[in-house]
Amino acid sequence: MLDNAHQQLGGPIVLVRDGLPAHRSARMRALIAARPWLRVYRLPGYAPELNPTENMWSSMKRGMANLAASTIDDLTRITRNRLTSMRYRPILADGLLAATGLVPP
Q1: pLDDT for 104
Q2: Residue 35 above 90 pLDDT?
Q3: Domain ranges of the chain
């Protein structure tokens, strides 16, 4: 997936990862070392305030707080629709990144 993104974008990729043990594995280290165009930044052990994904999920859950889906299929459909609408709102992604206080390298 990273290789495809790099090929499509034609430039360096910045990957921000958390402390999941799989992200620290020898396999992951080898993957990173083999890609000079890949910049990797690791979040501290527990820092949800620095992870824009946490803010994205929080925003989505707040938007669904009073929702009462009657089936799991309804919940799945609504969740997919909300994620799709977020996908097409780049200003939202910018805001979620800005909320972390982190600056791009």
Answers
A1: 60
A2: yes
A3: 2-42, 49-98
pLDDT at 46 over 70: yes
Instruction: Give the pLDDT confidence score for residue 103 in this predicted structure.
Output: 66
pLDDT (0 to 100) of residue 105: 55
Q: Which residues of 45-67 are buried (b: 16+ CB within 10 A; e: fewer)?
A: eeeeebbbebbbeeeeeeeeeee
Contacts 24+ apart (CB under 8 A), 51-58: 51/16, 51/18, 51/100, 52/93, 52/96, 52/97, 52/99, 52/100, 55/96, 55/99, 55/100, 56/86, 56/93, 56/96
Question: Residue 84's pLDDT is what?
Answer: 87
| Strands (DSSP E) found in 1-105 | 13-17, 38-42
pTM over 0.90: no
Q: Please give the structure tokens belonging to residue 67.
A: 């929702």
